[in-house]
Amino acid sequence: MNDLAGLGDYLREQRQSHRLSLRQLSELAGISNPYLSQIERGLKRPSAEILQQLAKGLEVSAETLYVKAGILDEHHADEKPTTSVRDAIAADPKLTDRQRATLLDVYESFVGTETER
């Protein structure tokens, strides 16, 4: 199974386990419904920013999605230096998914999201 198909399957499973429709998750993540559908079907490769938005909507670790998408190597995830506050929050193994989401919300309330810049 390629990275895109594996990522899509994982996202669909997470969405369904959270009892979210495709439309509900797309609204939570701030992306279009058709784009999310294409990601779930393994037709589109989402950017790290989109993965982060999806992780927030699903209350899962962005790092997990990065690994599923092939952006981050699972075996060396903890060894790579972080380049931003968002990446540091996503990579911290001591934080729960809910804590990550809360920290990202607080941080973004102070500095704004990347799409606002």
Description:
The protein is mainly α. It has one domain: lambda repressor-like DNA-binding domains (434 Repressor (Amino-terminal Domain), Orthogonal Bundle). Helices cover 61% and strands 0% of the residues. The protein is built from 7 helices and no strands. Helix 2 packs across helix 3, helix 2 crosses helix 4 and helix 4 packs across helix 5 (62-68). The longest helix has 15 residues, at 3-17. The radius of gyration is 14 Å and the shape is globular.
SSE map:
Blueprint: H1 3-17, H2 22-29, H3 33-40, H4 48-58, H5 62-68, H6 85-91, H7 97-111
Helix pairs in contact: 2-3, 2-4, 4-5, 6-7
Summarize the structure.
The chain has about 120 residues and is an all-alpha fold. The protein has seven helices and no strands.
SSE pattern: HHHHHHH
Task: Bin the helical content.
Answer: 55-70%
CATH superfamily: lambda repressor-like DNA-binding domains
CATH arch. level architecture: Orthogonal Bundle
Largest sheet: none
General shape = globular
**Portion in strands:** under 5%
Q: What gap, in angstroms, lies between the N and C termini?
A: 37 Å
**Structural class based on helices, strands and sheet pairing:** mainly alpha
